[in-house]
Amino acid sequence: MKLFGPRSRPLERREQHLPEQVPVDAYGNGGFRFGGMSHRGSILILPSGVHGWSAVAPADITADSLAQVLEEAADVDMLLVGTGRDLVPVKREVAEVLRERGIKHEAMSTGAAVRLFNVMLDERRKFAAAILAVD
């Protein structure tokens, strides 16, 4: 997809990535604020940093959509899964794939995931978060 900037120059959409784990300062309005930046859409927070995530609804939380988490499994003991406004359990197939990779997971609302992520960040634990954006 090409976007157009000043003077109609095409702008290329780049993979969104902040190469460090930082606290989430705010969430809502379809996105997040962290690290002095804002991001529209869902996010994955991995040992490698904060990444944009294409998932928009709990049904989008699949082993395929969590491929980046699985790639970093050696550095992740726990995955927090923020499922939107309400708690929606992770699909059994996804839970099995995570378990096979040695990753425990906990599903919760997006708000709870953000709060717990910030606490765990302060404790320097080996974890990741997959958090759906909410309006």
TrEMBL record:
SUPFAM superfamilies: MTH938-like. InterPro entries: MTH938-like_sf (IPR036748), NDUFAF3/AAMDC (IPR007523). Pfam families: DUF498 (PF04430). Residues 1-22 are annotated as: Disordered. CDD domains: Mth938-like (cd00248). Residues 9-18 have a biased composition (Basic and acidic residues). It comes from the Bacteria. PANTHER family: NADH DEHYDROGENASE [UBIQUINONE] 1 ALPHA SUBCOMPLEX ASSEMBLY FACTOR 3 (PTHR21192:SF2), NUCLEAR PROTEIN E3-3 (PTHR21192). This is Uncharacterized 12.7 kDa protein in helA 5'region. It comes from uncultured Pleomorphomonas sp.
